Recover the amino acids of this structure.
């Protein structure tokens, strides 16, 4: 079962993203999520090889630079959400967020 995220981006394929007022709000939301993943990656640096860290950092940097473009695509929300879920496998942001919210 994929981890949940309190922020509301797509988790299971059957769910839709939370409604955003406009595209700028959507882009800002994803930028904040990417920044949170970068912070979590930094906290987990000691547990992963330099290659894994480098690959995830490169993916985060690329996503950050392309999030504006991706959000204008018809399936952009699903694509960015899927990529965030894949990054979450390493950063474990969703697990950290769940633990923080359950206490």
């Amino acid at each position: 079962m994929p981890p949940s995220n309190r922020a509301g981006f797509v988790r299971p394929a059957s769910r839709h993203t939370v409604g955003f007022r406009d595209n700028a709000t959507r882009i800002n939301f994803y930028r904040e999520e990417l920044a949170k993943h970068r912070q979590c990656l930094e906290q987990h640096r000691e547990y992963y090889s330099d290659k894994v860290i480098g690959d995830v950092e490169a993916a985060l940097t690329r996503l950050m630079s392309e999030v504006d473009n991706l959000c204008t695509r018809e399936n952009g929300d699903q694509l960015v959400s899927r990529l965030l879920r894949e990054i979450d496998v390493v950063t474990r942001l969703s697990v950290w967020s769940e633990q923080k919210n359950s206490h």
In short: Residues 41 and 91 are 5 Å apart (CA to CA). Residues 23-94 form one domain. Residues 50-72 form the longest helix (23 residues).
